[in-house]
Amino acid sequence: GENVEQHPSTLSVQEGDSAVIKCTYSDSASNYFPWYKQELGKRPQLIIDIRSNVGEKKDQRIAVTLNKTAKHFSLHITETQPEDSAVYFCAASIKTGTASKLTFGTGTRLQVTL
Amino acid sequence: DGGITQSPKYLFRKEGQNVTLSCEQNLNHDAMYWYRQDPGQGLRLIYYSQIVNDFQKGDIAEGYSVSREKKESFPLTVTSAQKNPTAFYLCASNGGGPHLRYNEQFFGPGTRLTVL
Fold it and tell me: How many CA atoms lie within 13 A of A61 on its CB side?
């Protein structure tokens, strides 16, 4: 099955700096890559996603890049703010029969300090 | 954040008991999913369902059972066979159909299960 690895597990940046989180996946059939933000005790919320036919996508301070050949994708957050502090999960989606299964990375705890 | 609800928010279970977690959605989504999240870890897929009366095992189905009698509902039963059930359980749904693989999964608020 699919395997998703995520690094780093923790990341501390100063307010205003950039943060980068990296993920790799194993199954070349994966074709959809969402990123979720989860605050303590809350549900994951989608912040950005990218499809396999696109190399980069940007939404304000957040961007995601995908390298299909190397099977890795990254989340970039610029001008970080304290409210960006949370756990971020990457995921890869593979179509299995008629369903879509998400395999998640183990998460990155981002701490934005003042 | 309406649309997909889970109950209860907190659940305590004695060892040897079965418990059922509720998941309901009014988004008219075809597909529904159950995930388990342990502290400091990602989400792992327990079961998923594409349509009514159909469901498939995920990566960690042992000790769990599900049913899908209605499109809106996908309850999860944690049986006594699940040796370490204490975790945060999240239900999700998405649109299904031929474009399913590109559809965002929407999550419920979760149920935190603790075995006493």
Answer: 12
Do residues A74 and A20 make contact, with C-beta atoms less than 8 angstroms apart? yes
- Taking CB atoms and an 8 Å limit, are A34 and B43 in contact across chains? no
Query: Which of A4, A32, A104 minimises the CB distance to B101?
Result: A32
Measured CA to CA, the distance from residue B47 to residue A84 in angstroms comes to: 31
The closest of B90, B94, B115, B108 to B4, measured between CA atoms, is: B108
Give tens-digit pLDDT for B43-93: 999 999 988 999 999 999 999 999 999 999 999 999 988 889 999 999 999
Residues contacting B26, CB < 8 A, separation 6+: B2, B3, B4, B72
Share of chain A above pLDDT 70, in %: 96
pLDDT digits (tens, 9 = 90+) for B41-51: 889 999 999 88
What is the distance of C-alpha B19 from the center of its chain? Answer: 13
